[in-house]
Amino acid sequence: MRSRLITFFYYRKCLFPEDLADETINRVTLKIEEEKIGNKQAYIYGVAKFVYLESLRKEKNHLNIDEVTISENVQKYSDDCLEKCLNELSEENREVLLDYYSEEKQAKIKLHNQLSEKLNLTKTALRMKLVRLKRKLKICLEECAS
Fold first, then answer.
1. Helix (H) / strand (E) containing 7
2. For residue 115, which phi and psi values (nearest 5 degrees)?
3. Residues of the chain with CATH 1.10.10
4. What is the pTM of this model?
5. Whose CA is closest to 95, among 124, 113, 118, 78?
6. Phi, psi of 121 (to 5 degrees)
7. Which of 40, 46, 49, 47 is nearest to 9 (CA)?
8. What are phi and psi of 14, to 5 degrees?
9. Cα–Cα distance between 76 and 142 in angstroms, integer?
10. Which of 72, 76, 115, 135 is most buried as measured by Cβ atoms within 10 A of its Cβ?
11. Residue-level pLDDT, tens digit, the chain, 146 residues
């Protein structure tokens, strides 16, 4: 059964099919001890499906180094250029831009809500403001690098 589960996870392109198969077997073993299950094979594949879905959420945070490609047109901007271009923005715009990208995950959402309230803008208007600021910053950085 373990080899079938490994195949199940392998064909779904999971990063760690053996670990997921073991996790499935562990969960099924615990459940079988607690209650009677009629169709064990169907039950095992049902548990495997949920283990697979959980793994998708966890694998979002993993990066497969073999799948990473570096774009040829990636430009490295010096810290001096970045600082110069940020200083060309108004103090308010610079603060908004830096604050907007300062947090991650749930804190980021909360921060964006606070920023939109502070600036008396809708969330869409705030995003559009950031698009314009980023465009202005990018143009400055490209001019500085050339």
1. helix 2-10
2. -65, -45
3. 79-145
4. 0.47
5. 118
6. -125, 155
7. 49
8. -75, 145
9. 10
10. 115
11. 899 999 999 999 888 899 999 999 999 988 887 888 888 889 999 999 999 999 888 766 655 555 555 444 445 667 788 888 889 999 999 888 888 888 777 788 888 888 889 999 888 888 889 889 988 988 888 888 77
- With beta carbons less than 8 A apart as the criterion, state whether 119 and 99 touch: no
**Tokens 């079988």 -> residue:** 32
The H or E element that residue 142 is part of is helix 123-145
- 79-145: which CATH architecture? Orthogonal Bundle (1.10)
DSSP 33-53: HHS--S-HHHHHHHHHHHHHH
Q: Rounded to the nearest 10 degrees, how much is the dihedral formed by the CA atoms of 101, 119, 107, 128? A: -50
